[in-house]
Amino acid sequence: MTEATVDRACIVYDEHLTQYNFGQSHPMAPVRIELTMELADELGIVEGLDVVGAKPATEDELALIHTPLYIERVQKLSQHPTHADPTVNLGTEDNPVFANMHEASALIAGASVEAARRVWTGQAPRAVNISGGLHHAMPDRASGFCIYNDVALAIRWLLDNGAERVVYIDVDAHHGDGVQKMFWNDPRVLTISIHEGPQTLFPGTGFSIDTGGEGAEGMAVNVPLPPGTSDAGWLRAFHAVVPPLVREFAPDILVTQQGCDSHMDDPLTNLMLSVDGQRASYLALKALADEVCDGKWVATGGGGYAVMDVVPRAWAHLMAIVAGQPLDPQAPTPERWRARIQELRGMPGPHRMTDGRAVGYRAWEQGFDPASWLDRSIHATREASFPLNGLDHLP
């Protein structure tokens, strides 16, 4: 572990973070974290980051966003992993109970808080916790593979320690419903979620018209995308909605969730992005943080279930961009890393850090096509959210 220096970004990581493990048959396999770190290490990305550890979030810290009864039941089930509790949605197919579940979940939450603390106190310009991004967890129950909502806790820590305006941007294929719910009535937090539409994907929420609660109108922004949306359409939607709103809100810090299950090879979703398109989104987020909040950026992982071919490459790109040293997409993947995947599944890993896709998009200002499902979604989001934030929704 290296000593942190203020001019170097950091990653919050140690091997205990891979103990968040629902079992061999579950799609959220911790090997995706291990393979990401191995790839990043082989490529020299880790050398460009300060690697720092974390402590588990305490019960009092968790109680800032979760109910005491829920925390108590997670703790109890952690000691009795053969039991289930449907009242808190644990012991289900999505959220199986496992031994030391509370400890593993609290450590991920603590890691995201540490990432936020490092950036907010000036110890690092940017920070990443690839084990984090558990954005579905609700105040009183588990949801969608998520036990404790680490990103919401990190945002709460920032608010409690002087941040006046926080932007949360969620690019996971699934709607960031848990984080949105926890800050639905808080005008200090602007949540923006770009996701596959609720008509075709869990959790079935995140419509364009969902814009925030009383006193926080316009503070929830949702961009539901049609299934099949690829790089060009995704980037068109992102740039049509996100930068104008973030510039207008003028946040103190950016917190993001980088679920990479939007990839065309992901087994659980219906979006069609490439690693190249995902890399472009990370570059756009860094540029936005540099522009609006002096570069203060806390990034987390999230979904991603093509655990060998996609997640490690996508998040290695994320880590390199957080480090301020983006990788050439044409870079070859290390032979030893490919051999590791060969051992695990009998086939080698991808040979390059790219999917070979050229990344480009048509800017919204070039015209709105009402015959396009994608454009209708973008237009609906701008129409619902822009006026509430003092912006003109028309191109």
TrEMBL record:
Top-level lineage group: Bacteria
Record-annotated Histone deacetylase domain positions: 26-320
Alphabetical UniProt keywords: Acetoin catabolism
Pathway note: Ketone degradation; acetoin degradation
Xref: Pfam families: Hist_deacetyl
Gene3D superfamilies: Histone deacetylase domain (3.40.800.20)
Transmembrane portions of the chain: none
Similarity annotation: Belongs to the histone deacetylase family.
PANTHER family, per database record: HISTONE DEACETYLASE HDAC1, HISTONE DEACETYLASE HDAC1-RELATED
Official protein name in the record: Acetoin utilization protein AcuC
